[in-house]
Design a protein that fits this description.
By secondary structure, the protein is α/β, with parallel strands linked by helices. Helices cover 33% and strands 17% of the residues. The chain has a single domain, classed as TIM Barrel, CATH 3.20.20. The structure holds 5-O-phosphono-D-xylulose. Substrate binds at residues 10, 76, 174-177, 205, 225-226.
Length: 252
């Protein structure tokens, strides 16, 4: 069964001065998840916020009552040392911890003078660790990374080491409001062909003008920042994104 549409507005485009209300309004406007962009100024050339802010916004949005449910905090960890922050984000109220493949395998992070012994880890070990903390695990790849690096990870027979979601970046991570890169969609199509039930997320430049291409390729988890937070009627945009994905799901 193809997975349902999940609309996850990126709060990077929200008003940071009123983040709690922006988050609860977005859920009330029909969003399923909130996509929480965590940037450390190392893995990407931008800084957002850390776990204390996630704790605060959690108090404005009820925890999901089921796996993948409404109110899921989908934390996109654009950070150089993803293992280091797992427990902290769990305690802050994160439900899905999505790390970057490139950061997990990077020896640069592990060899830097500030790095902790946790800096380098295999993606499968990290997924196991995230699951052990009671969160869902996602793995993201940047536009320059080939989708082939994911096959071995997705083929694992050990459920604890299997990701709950794959994120294909459709912009270079770091900033909102960038142009959608359709060149990344063959990765989505290849994933969907192999894994009909996998949650496949796309992030960057998504909105009413680009959703059809992403949905055609097989994406079902849709991140949209400026298209939702910049809209006159965010609920209308969220509904349009959902309709586009649902229209492509095979009817039983
Ligand atoms: O992770 C990122 C950027 O690094 C995204 O989540 C963007 O924040 C999406 O913003 P839009 O492209 O939808 O404005």
């Amino acid at each position: 069964m193809a997975p349902p549409a999940i609309i996850a507005p990126s709060i990077l485009s929200a008003d940071f001065g009123a983040l709690g209300k922006e988050c609860s309004d977005t859920i009330n406007n029909g969003a399923d998840w909130l996509h929480v962009d965590i940037m450390d100024g190392h893995f990407v050339p931008n800084i957002t916020f850390g776990a204390p802010v996630v704790t605060k916004i959690r108090s404005h949005v009820a925890k999901p009552t089921e796996k993948h449910g409404k109110g899921t905090f989908d934390c996109h960890m654009m950070i150089a040392e993803p293992k280091k922050w797992v427990k902290e984000f769990k305690n802050a109220g994160c439900d899905l911890y999505c790390f970057h493949y490139e950061a997990a395998i990077s020896s640069t992070a592990a060899e830097s003078p500030e790095a902790t012994s946790d800096a380098k880890t295999s993606p499968k070990e990290l997924i196991r660790y995230i699951h052990d903390q009671g969160m869902l695990a996602g793995i993201a790849i940047k536009p320059d990374t080939k989708v082939d690096v994911l096959w071995d990870i997705l083929e694992t027979k050990d459920e604890k080491e299997k990701p709950d979601m794959v994120l294909i970046m459709t912009v270079h991570p770091g900033f909102g409001g960038q142009k959608f890169m359709a060149s990344e969609l063959p990765k989505v199509a290849a994933l969907r062909q192999r894994y009909p039930e996998l949650n496949i997320e796309v992030d960057g430049g998504l909105g009413p003008g680009t959703i059809d291409q992403a949905a055609d390729a097989g994406a079902n988890v849709i991140v949209a920042g400026s298209a939702v937070f910049g809209a006159k009627d965010p609920s209308e945009v969220i509904a349009k994104l959902r309709e586009a994905v649902e229209a492509r799901r095979p009817k039983l």
